[in-house]
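**Backbone geometry record:**
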Amino acid sequence: MPDDAKPSYRRILLKISGEALMGRQEYGLEAETVQRVASEVKAVHDMGVEVCIVVGGGNIFRGVSGAAGGMDRASADYMGMLATVINALAMQSALEGMGVYTRVLSAIPMQTVCEPYIRRRAMHHMEKDRVVIFGAGTGNPSFTTDTAAALRAFEMNCDVIIKATKVDGVYSADPVNNPDAIRYDRLTYREVLEKDLRVMDATAIAHARENNIPILVFSVQEAGALIDVVQSRGNFTLIEDGG
């Protein structure tokens, strides 16, 4: 790595959607994709960056779709939270297979497979140079894993939230379905809310704004993109206060 290739952040929260771990599959986990994402997390960690991760569960179960199918919304949301723990354990297995010490902390206690989320315990793990993976969202129905990411970033004193998506930033519309969609390099929290860009839900954006935590949005499908983003290189959209 060149001498000038230094990380721009001391401590990051990486938000990975469940869909990002599907790879080319229609559902579930693609081992190759999990391994690739884990290898990039390891590379960033080896640069001296402290890393914590929030994973989604949409590749296994999505609470909104379950509720739409007639299921009780709270029950559907809890099922979605359990799906995030499955993804967190998969990421832990991949990282530890690469020699990275990792801990999974769940907002819903399940001591047989992971530790319960306790803020001081999570801080201790990060100070011990472990990658901490947060599962089960906030532990409450009606709150997305985006909101959980904003909350944990605040609690862990992270410098930035890095959101891994399928596209290389924030667009005015879905670029897959609309070739005329405009890509933004920089946005304010207010612009994200006013334009209803939906890169993260409004609660997450508001929480990040209140605590002045910038958000970087990049494509996890581009090899090496996470490493570039941590060094403020490559393609990404930066969301921060316009003041």
